[in-house]
Amino acid sequence: MKIVILGAGAVGSHLAKMLRTEGNDITVIDNDEKRISDLSSVADVRTVLGNPSSTKVLAGAGVGRADLFIAVYPSSLQETNIVGSLLAKRMGAAKVLARINDIEYLSADNKLMFNDMGIELLFYPEKIAADEIVAQLKQTSSSETMDFARGQLQISVFKLTEESPLLDQKLSEFVAGLAPGEIDSFRIIAISRGSDTIIPGPETVFQYNDLVFAFSRQEGVPLLVKYFGQSMLKVRKVMIVGGNEIAAMLAAELHSEGIEVKLVEINRQRCIELNDRLDDDIEIVHGDGRNSDLLFDEGISECDAFVALTGEDETNILSCVAAKKLGVPRTVAEVENTEYLRLADELGVDSIINKKLITAANIFRFTLEGKARFVKYMRGTSAEIIEYTAAEGSAITKKPLKELGFPSGAIVGGVIRAGESFIAVGDTQIQANDRVAIFATPGSVKAIDKLFR
Fold first, then answer.
1. What is the pLDDT of residues 101-133, one digit of tens each?
2. Cβ atoms within 10 A of the Cβ of 256, count?
3. Spatial separation of the C-alpha atoms in residues 403 and 430, rounded to whole Å
4. What is the extent of the structural domain holding 216?
5. Judgement on whether residues 221 and 242 belong to the same structural domain of the protein
């Protein structure tokens, strides 16, 4: 697939590197020589230095032959993204996506208007991140979850601690100990151990610090929580450290859900802006969120969750560690440097938010030819969760799963059929129009995509 990316910033560079590893032909346009130089030094992609709104530059980048055009200049340059996208569509780009920074554009009427003009997707990474955090805080004590069909089917990630009953058990031993009704409620599909992602077999042994991925029906969640040695958690009070755009949207969303919110921000002027913008019931505190004494005085030990969004990865991670020591049961950190993701896991951060990965997941489905509804990257692994809709006559519908020669790096976790959800097994026969949730390592995605065409 030929893909042209407008913008070589953090998001654009990450997309370029990720999409290039999938074998796509990537061209990146930017008018900043340093950003272009930095990207060229780490990725095998074609780069074009020039005005992103110039038709001559766009034509030279091959926009007219592009299968996919992605405009991801920094959010402050929203107009550049929109103008570039509209020009790209008019010049012949097949699919066009644009980053925005105005939540008003995401209203149904405005999205329809932009769609009529040829922009298939408008995305606002900060809003997506805020929504992701809200979803995490509304879930149980698992470190990360994703819902299908309004929660009928879920994917959860649990970290094995010293209290986990599964510790040192083989998968076969664990399954043998389940009651008949429990076996149909969930399925363990993968383990992230160090830098490895393992599709477990019967002899796989659960180890301390493993991140374990499980598909479950809604009624299976309490069982998973029990077997992983955790407890159910309802979030009623949240402290947010950092007052960036994600924090502002998060505070507003949590407040609308009836959750008590306190936000700590070090910049006085930003505190004033947030105070004017947010509801009066949201308490804004001017102070340094790195100061444990301040957090204690502000009642952190009474909070159910702590969210660190300062814009500094190290500060966010260490603040979450401090919050844990002060008794907060649930912590969330924004970590943009992917090299720090494993560190955050090892230090006990419960959930991690990364705008680049979230954005990549929203965009990646546009590179697949099968009917992929959406994609999500799961923490601690390079794997993706992909939800497909099985097309009439596609290969996936021809035989039971165990006879399809399914890629070794992938596993079907659950299926939603006519509004009902169930956990997939080897004898499961996928039918046309089934929604199918798949855990897939990068090397297996293309083979899976072919099965759903």
1. 888 999 989 989 999 999 999 999 999 999 989
2. 10
3. 12
4. 156-227
5. no
19 neighbors 43 (Cβ within 8 angstroms): no
Q: Which amino acid is at 248?
A: A
- Provide the whole-model pTM: 0.84
Residue in this structure with the two tokens 């955090």, named with its chain if needed: 133
Q: Is residue 147 part of a domain?
A: no
Query: Which CATH number goes with the domain that contains 219?
Result: 3.30.70.1450
Residue 375's pLDDT is 78
Distance separating alpha carbons of residues 365 and 265, to the nearest angstrom:
36
Structure token digits, residue 220: 């299976």
Q: Establish if 133 belongs to a structural domain.
A: no
- For the chain, what's the residue count? 453
**C-beta separation of 388 from 90 below 8 A:** no
Number of domains in the chain: 4
Q: What is the pLDDT of residues 303-315, one digit of tens each?
A: 999 999 999 999 9
Residues 225 and 142: beta-carbon distance below 8 Å: yes
Are 444 and 386 in contact by the 8 Å Cβ rule? The answer is no
Measured CA to CA, the distance from residue 194 to residue 207 in angstroms comes to 11
Rounded distance, CA 394 to CA 378, Å? Answer: 27
Residue 397 to residue 186: CA distance in whole angstroms:
23
Which tokens in the block code for residue 167?
């510790």
The answer to whether the CB of 7 falls within 8 A of the CB of 16 is no
Establish if 352 belongs to a structural domain: no
In this structure, what CATH number is given to the domain that contains residue 101? 3.40.50.720
Average pLDDT over residues 201-212: 91
- Helix spans in 75-122 (H): 78-91, 108-116
Neighbours of 313 (CB within 10 A): 22
Nearest to 343 by CA among 368, 316, 364: 316
Closest by CA position to 288, among listed 277, 301, 297, 275: 297
As a whole number of angstroms, the distance between CA 441 and CA 197 comes to 8
Q: Is residue 432 part of a domain?
A: yes
On whether both 266 and 200 belong to a single domain, the answer is no
- Alpha helices in 328-412, H assignment, sequence order: 341-346, 355-364
